[in-house]
Specification:
By secondary structure, the protein is mainly alpha-helical. 64% of the residues lie in helices and 0% in strands. It has five helices and no strands. The chain has helices at 12-16, 21-24, 26-30, 34-43, 50-71. The protein starts with 11 loop residues before the first helix and ends with a helix.
Length: 72
């Protein structure tokens, strides 16, 4: 499972705005160009929505437990 960061969780929203390509479509923005990737690696800070992240962790735990129970 992959946790997808919402626009409001990224500090880049304050810099670029919520409708900028940097946030709306990171793959298109980077487009294989490593120097564009630096925006995410060096500039971005995250403010995780704890309630949303908890729901994600609960789902992840249930899937892992189900897998482990099948393997036993």
């Amino acid at each position: 499972m992959e946790y997808k960061v919402k626009t409001k969780e990224s500090s880049l929203a304050e810099i670029y705005g919520t409708n900028d390509l940097v946030l709306k479509n990171p793959d298109a923005y980077v487009n294989g160009n490593y120097s564009n990737m630096r925006v995410y690696m060096r500039t971005q800070n995250l403010k995780i929505d704890i309630v949303r992240f908890k729901r994600y962790l609960v789902r992840l735990y249930k899937k892992a437990k189900k897998f482990m129970d099948m393997e036993s």
